[in-house]
Specification:
single chain, 121 residues, mainly alpha, two-stranded antiparallel ribbon, 6 helices
């Protein structure tokens, strides 16, 4: 199988978005009479919005208000997010591999070369 498209999740995969998440949550949670710890933030970071609201005991009927506050504050943080140190190297290597071979690799989760595996680690 030859792949024509590679799709990546960005938040927490290519971009270190946790610092922005932490800052935003510490700003908006008090508006919902809720507080957080660093441990809770690590726990809720990969959760869906519904799961996060449940974790912080925020009523589901406030999801739109929460989402609006979250998006408003997050938009102020986006310029502060950074790529993980490995992101540029891995993407550059994949582009080089594609240029040389015309494909990214075969099968789910397989890499095109041992060199690619090593960089991805």
């Amino acid at each position: 199988m030859t792949y024509k498209l590679v799709l990546f999740d960005i938040d927490g995969t290519l971009v270190d978005s946790f610092p922005s998440y932490k800052k935003v949550m510490r700003i908006i949670l008090p508006k919902f009479n809720s507080a957080t710890t660093l441990e809770q933030l690590f726990q809720t970071f990969p959760m869906t919005m519904d799961e996060t609201l449940q974790e912080y005991s925020i009523s589901q009927n406030k999801i739109d208000i929460f989402r609006n506050y979250y998006q408003e504050e997050l938009s102020k943080q986006k310029s502060q997010e950074n790529l993980f140190s490995h992101t540029t190297n891995v993407l550059t290597l994949w582009i080089e591999l594609f240029t040389e071979t015309g494909e990214f690799g075969r099968g789910s989760g397989n890499f095109a070369s041992d060199k690619d595996k090593e960089i991805a680690r």
